[in-house]
Specification:
single chain, alpha+beta, 5 helices
Length: 94
């Protein structure tokens, strides 16, 4: 069975520290790719690739106005991940 790619698997999408940083920033407020790139001191194309992966994992969405995309966090997949991981808390049995 083939492993899911990072772009379709929430676990793999959030495994990258830059993508986790993007999620943290978008949790504060919506931002453009350029604003996100400035926060990471990296080029916009690199951040755009991370955003593509996060979009494919349904972790972010965007609206477009006059050719400018504003990205927003879509927290539902993160909540599902948190709910699943709580099953393995310190009080759980293996």
């Amino acid at each position: 069975m083939a492993r899911p790619t990072a772009s379709h698997d929430v676990f793999r999408a959030v495994a990258d520290p830059t993508r986790r940083g993007i999620i943290d920033l978008l949790a504060e407020s919506p931002r453009t790719a350029g604003e996100l790139a400035a926060s990471f001191n990296s080029c916009q194309s690199t951040v755009s690739e991370h955003l593509r992966i996060l979009r494919e994992a349904r972790l972010v969405s965007y609206t477009e106005d006059r050719g400018r995309r504003t990205y927003r966090l879509t927290p539902a997949p993160l909540r599902q991940l948190a709910t699943w991981s709580q099953r393995w808390g310190k009080d759980s049995q293996p």
